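Exam revision sheet. Question 4 asks you to relate a sequence to its structure. Input first:
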Amino acid sequence: MSYYDIDAILTDAEKVPCKFELDVPELGYLDSNPSHPLKAGTSIGIPLWLAEPLALTSRSQTSTDDSNSFVSLDLPPSLSNQVMSALKADPRAVPLRDQSHNFYGLGTRMLDVFEEREICATLRKTFVTRAADIALHARKAGATEDMGVGTGEEFLRGLEEWERKLFRKAHEGTKETKEWMEGVKKH
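Answer key, structure tokens:
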């Protein structure tokens, strides 16, 4: 991941649900209460780039328990049990872009914080299963110059960013292979 990677920046900007563990003066506006402090126990969504260090940083130097952090971090709705169950049932049936534009990036970042082996396995299986379909659609679209926009527009609409990059690479590879084969036939 590069510092200038727009997908990484957008992933870090995704809001994740957090519960504040202490009162914070001057932040009541985050909970639509501008003249009051943000109360302990308040649950709000804050960007991942801010939530992660607040959840992992301890308020005191001597304690290492989780209840001593500034916020407790929860999994975002796009990685909820309902979504994971749908992905386990049929990964192809879930439009990941509706869950998050950077679904796999968000999942990867959240797995840096949470040790959820089941989510990790589900994300891996989902990517592998969907990659086969992406390659198939890219191969079909490889026959045209427009990346199959007219034929597979609905399919492309459900792909999240990692999948779109995979589709582009597979499409370009198919197109270049076709051009190479035509060049070989001429000689």
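Marking note for examiners. The helical segments are 6-12, 48-56, 81-89, 96-99, 103-113, 117-141, 153-157, 161-186.
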